[in-house]
């Protein structure tokens, strides 16, 4: 892929301009997807190193932004895929990290199941139509507008019932 970023600027200047104007955006995108600052910095560096090594240039700012955005997504996906493979390999060798240990810990499984049971019991005690609205929103992932249309009520009524349902669940589970 060989695109020209600008006719007037030499490749080194174009790269410097690209790096200076887009580094933070690429870093923030990587950070949003992987949630680890050091990893996001490394992935961002990999993207710009690849552009530098391949001497890739771009026709315009938009094509550069699109390329950088896709590169960030692919870098993070590759990182996460490799990380998953490492975790699976560690499970087989007995080198489990703390998250994996919690996931397969019988006490954690019991606690999660118990919490899930309590939540379901509390949902069943919600008065109608709050229970129906809550289930449509949380289990069927319908928007308030979709719920309002389906039940023939206003969006404000849906909001009111959801607020009451969530307050009731919060009080019952925390209180």
Automatic annotation (TrEMBL):
- What InterPro entries does this protein's entry cite? RNA_pol_sigma-70-like, RNA_pol_sigma-70_dom, RNA_pol_sigma70_bacteroid, RNA_pol_sigma70_r2, RNA_pol_sigma70_r4_t2, RNA_pol_sigma_r2, RNA_pol_sigma_r3/r4-like, WH-like_DNA-bd_sf
Question: Start and end of every RNA polymerase sigma factor 70 region 4 type domain?
Answer: 118-169
List where the protein spans the membrane. Answer: none
Q: Which UniProt keywords apply?
A: Sigma factor, Transcription, Transcription regulation
Q: Which residues form the signal peptide?
A: none
Pfam families from the entry? Sigma70_r2 (PF04542), Sigma70_r4_2 (PF08281)
Q: Give the UniProt record's GO annotations in the biological process aspect.
A: DNA-templated transcription initiation
Sequence ranges assigned to domain RNA polymerase sigma-70 region in this UniProt record: 18-84
Gene Ontology molecular functions = DNA binding; sigma factor activity
Give the top-rank taxon of the lineage listed in the UniProt record for this protein. Bacteria
Q: Cross-referenced NCBIfam families, in alphabetical order?
A: Sig70_bacteroi1, sigma70-ECF
Describe the family membership recorded for this protein in Swiss-Prot or TrEMBL: Belongs to the sigma-70 factor family. ECF subfamily.
| PANTHER family for the chain | RNA POLYMERASE ECF-TYPE SIGMA FACTO, RNA POLYMERASE SIGMA-70 FACTOR ECF SUBFAMILY
Task: Quote the protein name from its UniProt record.
Answer: RNA polymerase sigma-70 factor (ECF subfamily)
